[in-house]
């Protein structure tokens, strides 16, 4: 037993022991609170079994914040190691593990769920729908994501974290060079959550195409919903590539296949091509919804209609398509030849055109607008120079001959973070501040929000601007230490200080949430920003059925146009005639099925077929049980609708 425990649990590092203690204490605290306040039944009924898209969205957002904390701590540990030459804070192996987990967590387990959280809460409300097309599938998607994320994070204390880089290139990820369970945690954590992501993409495509309010044609649809549609189209085509790629890698490791091993007749470059055929569309999958958020915010706070609506729509679709034609720019130095490099250089430059169109459209929307600088608009304005710099450095990287200088250097690291943090994460922050009143019924504190904004931006520039210079000075990524003779000390120290300031900014945001909860001023208007789209036409937070009466859309920005017509006396509020509302019932099958998937993954990681096979049987059993369950829906009575609306401050007669 002692020998098994020493191999099963990660030992020998004080940081790991600290994590063990914090995990145990957190579990004890959560269980104690739920037991003391007798909330287990409430937790099961209201959250763990819910199919309400808004609650699922909130759970995605909470999971994302948790992962942002974990990934952020990883980043601070790496920057602490690199702050000074010849540091001994982390060993080389531990640094590789943190480097790997940081990338995976931030992209797949932080940015993706934050994006899906906003999808879930906002898109049905913008479309005038009562739920997504497939509520049960939506709940299953979340729990698969969560199970995969927990499985991946478990490797930190059990078995050992993966250490082959966040994209797990062979031969480092093959069994000969990576015999421990860490790489299998990587494969199955991503594989299980990736299935959930694919199902989410399918669900929202169908929702947007089939569940819009009467009168809402595609060209009357809000820009955020258009961005979600573009993103989900890319998800549906990209994520099967990831699923197949990781399946082939697992076959190599588990069954002795040789898809990616040179000595067995395989080719590691095939893996690199496949992973980037998913990986570069993935960048646009997470950035397209941020574009949609910018568009909603800039129109609302400029008090103007979005400039160039149709060009924005076409730009998003073009980006979604072109994102599949640029992947080889990640390995211009791999010897593909001048013709191949030239093709991918041109397609990479082309994708900058529709992206540039968006920036100019946002600027023209602000031009002569009556701009007010509430926190969401502050994020929007701050994002533009950040994203322009990221785009310009991307164009530099697209020049194949120049990329021989930039490749694998800290210039590339700075560019990637410039786009992902300043473009994606800051964009999602802007969306959270903007839609927070709609999600929770109260605004976040403006003063503390501004502190968070400035700390994030100052910290970001301090952290990543020096890294462009470091890259040009010859510092390559994946280094865990360097000598005093390199001349990199000052820039690395400034970069680390910037990372610490961003960590402080995150804590300020948590303080903002806690302060706002304590001193909340409930929004009784449903429309605190004087916004333009349908989600602001209902109470905040939205009732569980969303709309008491389905809206009839007649124009783009229909809610704004309707307010103007009522204000000018051209339209009177319509008489409301309520009818029973058809709604889906909660189900415990999604969370149970995800637990079985967890057992499948955990069993295969440790080659425990006694766990994996029953887990897979459990997955099939859940499918069978659900297929024979016909009691899946109910009707909300007119009396309950009136009571719910009255509680929200709306009297319906």
From TrEMBL:
Keywords: Cell membrane, Copper, Electron transport, Heme, Hydrogen ion transport, Ion transport, Iron, Membrane, Metal-binding, Oxidoreductase, Respiratory chain, Transmembrane, Transmembrane helix, Transport. It is found in: Cell membrane. Its cofactor is Cu cation; ferriheme a. It catalyses: 2 a quinol + O2 = 2 a quinone + 2 H2O. Coiled coil: none annotated. The chain crosses the membrane at residues 15-37, 58-78, 98-123, 135-158, 185-211, 223-251, 313-330, 342-364, 376-400, 412-436, 448-469, 489-511, 588-606, 612-630. InterPro entries: Cyt_c_oxase-like_su1_dom, Cyt_c_oxase-like_su1_sf, Cyt_C_Oxase_1. Pathway: Energy metabolism; oxidative phosphorylation. The keyword Methyltransferase does not apply. It comes from the Bacteria. The keyword Iron applies. PROSITE patterns: COX1. One of its GO terms (molecular function) is heme binding. GO terms for biological process: aerobic respiration; electron transport coupled proton transport; respiratory electron transport chain. It is a multi-pass membrane protein. Residues 36-554 form the Cytochrome oxidase subunit I profile domain. GO terms for cellular component: plasma membrane. PANTHER family: CYTOCHROME BO(3) UBIQUINOL OXIDASE SUBUNIT 1, CYTOCHROME C OXIDASE SUBUNIT 1. Belongs to the heme-copper respiratory oxidase family. This is Quinol oxidase polypeptide I. It comes from Brevibacillus brevis (strain 47 / JCM 6285 / NBRC 100599). The lineage of its organism: Bacteria, Bacillati, Bacillota, Bacilli, Bacillales.
